[in-house]
């Protein structure tokens, strides 16, 4: 059985996702983005109230394997969208078509459960080391040395080429196919409690940065209301204080021209880091959802 008092391995997450299709057959369908390097399916759910002309939201989670809180928060969000009677959550659930993929790096996630808890990258073999950083592998400023590494043993190794990893290649193709309906792109990382907007390199500015800043400032205020958790907000390079190239959100913004793009670094600020106790899943997820509701209410008001 699945829940939010513990972290679960991939097969439990997938069994739970599949069960939703049976329970909520009118609203939920399983989506399959493609296969990982080791042949696992990259599964998610689409939640739709089937209203004519609804815009889509895509949530990418777990692209870094050890960031377990992102997988748990994504599944908690799915559950809330399907079961909550809170007016704000019901509104965003019904107003949009949701595409939620809790683990976009399933090989890595599985590896953190079976073998090495602190694994970050994919699991494709190189000559000396395994894996590329799937958040440096996208075709935007891909070979920029300021934001990624060409050393295959580095934690920020960009890979042999743009989209060399099957996980990023299939996800980018899936997103390209739905780009006309895609209004909002959200990604979850951990940790450090920051909410970010594009871009990861100095000097690159999102065309609608003022709007994204207004929405984001309000979102971290909304997040803080619940448990007094303090977030920083800003463009990636400003908020995380280093440069990052080849990231998914930047590519989605620049290449697919998605209007509203936000990326979270969830709890905490380093006390537990990636090893966030499972007792913090529900408080983390609740406050994160508060910020998502805030963002999407603002998006609806502007569209
Ligand atoms: O370095 C990263 O990839 C992210 N931080 S993490 O500790 N979760 O690894 C920040 C990524 C910044 N985002 C983009 N460049 N899109
Ligand atoms: Zn990350």
UniProtKB/TrEMBL annotation:
Catalytic residue positions: 265 (proton donor/acceptor)
Keyword Hydrolase attached: yes
Location within or outside the cell: Secreted
Required cofactor(s): Zn(2+)
Keywords: Carboxypeptidase, Disulfide bond, Hydrolase, Metal-binding, Metalloprotease, Protease, Secreted, Signal, Zinc
An MF annotation (GO) of this entry: metallocarboxypeptidase activity
GO biological process, one term: proteolysis
Residue span, Peptidase M14 domain: 6-299
Keyword Hydrolase assigned: yes
Single GO cellular component term: extracellular space
Function as written in the Swiss-Prot or TrEMBL entry: Involved in the digestion of the blood meal.
Family recorded in the similarity comment: Belongs to the peptidase M14 family.
Name of the protein: Zinc carboxypeptidase A 1
Taxon lineage: Eukaryota, Metazoa, Ecdysozoa, Arthropoda, Hexapoda
Residues shown, of full length: 114 to 416 of 420
């Amino acid at each position: 059985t699945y829940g939010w008092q513990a972290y679960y391995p991939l097969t439990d997450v997938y069994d739970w996702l599949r069960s939703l299709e049976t329970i909520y057959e009118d609203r939920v369908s399983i989506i399959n983005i493609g296969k990982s390097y080791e042949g696992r399916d990259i599964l998610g759910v689409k939640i739709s109230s089937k209203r004519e002309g609804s815009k889509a939201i895509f949530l990418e989670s777990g692209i870094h394997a050890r960031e377990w809180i992102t997988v748990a928060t994504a599944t908690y969000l799915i559950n809330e969208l399907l079961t909550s009677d809170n007016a704000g959550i019901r509104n965003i659930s019904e107003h949009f078509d949701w595409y939620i993929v809790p683990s976009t790096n399933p090989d890595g996630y599985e590896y953190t459960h079976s073998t090495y808890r602190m694994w970050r990258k994919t699991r494709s073999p190189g000559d000396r080391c395994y894996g590329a950083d799937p958040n440096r592998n996208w075709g935007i400023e891909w070979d920029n040395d300021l934001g990624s590494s060409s050393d295959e043993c580095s934690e920020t190794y960009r890979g042999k080429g743009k989209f060399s990893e099957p996980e990023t290649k299939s996800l980018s193709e899936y997103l390209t196919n739905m780009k006309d309906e895609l209004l909002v792109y959200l990604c979850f990382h951990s940790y450090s409690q920051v909410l970010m907007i594009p871009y990861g390199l100095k000097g690159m500015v999102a065309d609608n940065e003022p709007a994204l800043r207004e929405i984001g400032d309000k979102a971290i205020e909304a997040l803080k209301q619940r448990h007094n958790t303090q977030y920083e907000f800003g463009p990636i390079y400003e908020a995380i204080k280093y440069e990052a190239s080849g990231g998914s959100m930047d590519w989605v913004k620049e290449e697919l021209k998605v209007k509203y793009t936000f990326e979270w670094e969830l709890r905490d600020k380093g006390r537990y880091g990636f090893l966030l106790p499972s007792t913090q899943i529900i408080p983390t997820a609740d406050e994160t959802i508060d910020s998502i509701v805030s963002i999407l209410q603002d998006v609806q008001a502007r569209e």
